[in-house]
Amino acid sequence: MSQPKIVAFAGSLRTGSYNKRLAHIAADAVRAAGAEVTLVDLRELNLPLFDQDIEDSTGLPDGAKKFKALLRDSDGFLIASPEYNSSITAALKNAIDWASRAESDDEPDLVAFRGKAAALCSASPGALGGLRGLVTVRSILGNIGVCVVPDQVCISKAHEAFDGNGHLKDEKQVKKIAALAMTLVEFTRKLKA
Predict the structure, then answer these.
(1) 3 state DSSP class of 43
(2) Which residues contact 140 (CB under 8 A, 6 or more apart)?
(3) Helix axis angle, 131-143 to 90-99, nearest 10°
(4) What is the per-residue pLDDT across 141-182, written as a single tens digit (0 to 9) for each?
(5) CA dist., res. 46 & res. 23, Å (int)
(6) Please, how many CA atoms are within 13 Å of residue 192, restricted to the half-sphere of its CB?
(7) pTM for the full model?
(8) Could you point out which of 21, 38, 56, 182 has its C-alpha 20 to 30 Å from the C-alpha of 154?
């Protein structure tokens, strides 16, 4: 079977984001599990807030087109999602909203999402590690046709979890991320078969 293509990204824009660090770690784990990985920084896409007037007047912004094309051409996603006020970030929801938009009348609905696999992880300074936000991400993705693997990893006390080089200090957490990566790759291969 061909090598699965996975798009990995964090739902955070902040330069020093714990979830960007986690996305890098998880992307490396997904590569080690046998997939081709494209790591995306949502900040670099420069997405305006979704606005139907923008879409109607100029179509999808360039960053939205780029992100949607990456998702459409992939087999699945690895998302490291922060938790903001017990939910997901505006940046993550906005990126999903832009990528969900059709660019032509004959484009299949939700072409960037339907039939794809996803794995979720989170890092947060709080005791739950971003768990509450992942509930919302899972719900949104499921409603747009993404098969989200049951396993997920939440890193609590994120301000203490990473070393100065951005690596996780706890070997148990590293193993959990590796197991999640393997699950995503295996699940993606089964979906493609």
Answers:
(1) helix
(2) 88, 93, 96
(3) 10
(4) 999 999 999 999 999 999 999 999 999 999 999 999 999 999
(5) 19
(6) 18
(7) 0.95
(8) 38
